[in-house]
């Protein structure tokens, strides 16, 4: 099902309201170049092609892309891991992990990232993950607000997590039995 963006296009003298539709689907190998371009445009953490493909193979249904027309404008990719829960003491759990998410600057604030996260969480839940984790720079208020709106909360801080020495917030959201209102991740 397509979603609608109400975008304001500003010319020299006029502002015109246009409506654009975006849709989400699973990543496929033909998207690789576009996803790498979005990643390099939007984030300082960049990866080699094989890392994107390895992540896709680990968790295909939670690697989603967003399209406006024929243009790929956003992506989210995740992994399934195992480890001790940050919220349930001494419990060994199956963890979903959001590795990377980005939306091209001109398509932001239209709900695309929210839908990408919701679909990824549904996919991780279908893969029997108990919790979903992510790291975010403590200065990335935009992303932190997005994650909090979608049910993530602070689990812990990791000093010097990023290559430039910045601290990461590790955030977690429960998954099991937590149905979300978004289209299925099977599309
Ligand atoms: N300022 C404040 N809050 C913002 C915001 C901004 N510029 N952009 C998004 N948010 C918050 C708002 O709460 C928003 O809800 P609202 O529009 O109803 O107020 C909510 O996030 C959802 O926004 P959404 O439109 O779904 O997000 P987006 O498609 O614009 O994408 C990012 C958000 C973070 C993915 C995008 O800004 C981006 O690609 N940033 C660079 C890459 C990045 O930081 N990735 C995360 C790394 S952990």
Hetero ligands: coenzyme A
Number of helical runs? 4
**What is the topology, as strand order, of the major beta sheet?**
1-2-3-4-5-6-8-7
Beta-strand residue percentage: 35-45%
The unreliable regions are: 7-17, 183-187
Helix percent band: 10-25%
Largest sheet: 8 strands, mixed
Provide the residue-averaged pLDDT: 88
Order of helices and strands: EEHHEEEHEHEE
Question: What is the terminal separation in angstroms?
Answer: 9 Å
Protein described:
With 187 residues, the chain is α+β, with helices and mostly antiparallel strands. Helix content is 24%, strand content 38%. The protein contains 4 helices and 8 strands; from the N terminus they run ββααβββαβαββ. The chain has helices spanning 32-42, 49-58, 112-126, 141-149, and strands spanning 3-10, 15-26, 64-68, 71-84, 92-103, 131-137, 153-158, 168-174. Strands 1-2-3-4-5-6-8-7 form an 8-stranded mixed beta sheet. Strand 5 (92-103), helix 3 and strand 6 form a beta-alpha-beta unit. The termini are close together. The structure holds coenzyme A (COA). Coenzyme A is lined by residues 42-43, 101-103, 108-114, 136, 140, 142-143, 145-146, 149.
């Amino acid at each position: 099902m397509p979603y609608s963006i109400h975008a304001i296009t500003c010319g020299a003298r006029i502002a015109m309201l246009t409506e654009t539709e975006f849709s989400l689907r699973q990543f496929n190998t033909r998207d690789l170049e576009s996803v790498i371009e979005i990643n390099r445009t939007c984030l300082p953490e960049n990866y080699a092609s094989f890392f994107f493909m390895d992540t896709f193979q680990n968790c295909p249904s939670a690697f989603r892309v967003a399209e406006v027309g024929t243009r790929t404008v956003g992506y989210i990719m995740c992994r399934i891991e195992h480890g001790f829960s940050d919220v349930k003491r001494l419990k060994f759990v199956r963890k979903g992990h959001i590795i990377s998410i980005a939306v091209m600057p001109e398509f932001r604030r239209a709900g695309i990232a929210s839908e990408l996260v919701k679909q990824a969480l549904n996919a991780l839940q279908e893969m029997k993950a108990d919790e979903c984790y992510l790291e975010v720079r403590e200065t990335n208020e935009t992303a932190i607000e997005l994650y909090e709106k979608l049910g993530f909360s602070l689990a812990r801080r990791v000093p010097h997590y990023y290559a430039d020495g910045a601290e990461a917030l590790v955030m977690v959201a429960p998954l099991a039995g937590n149905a979300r209102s978004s289209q299925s991740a099977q599309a």
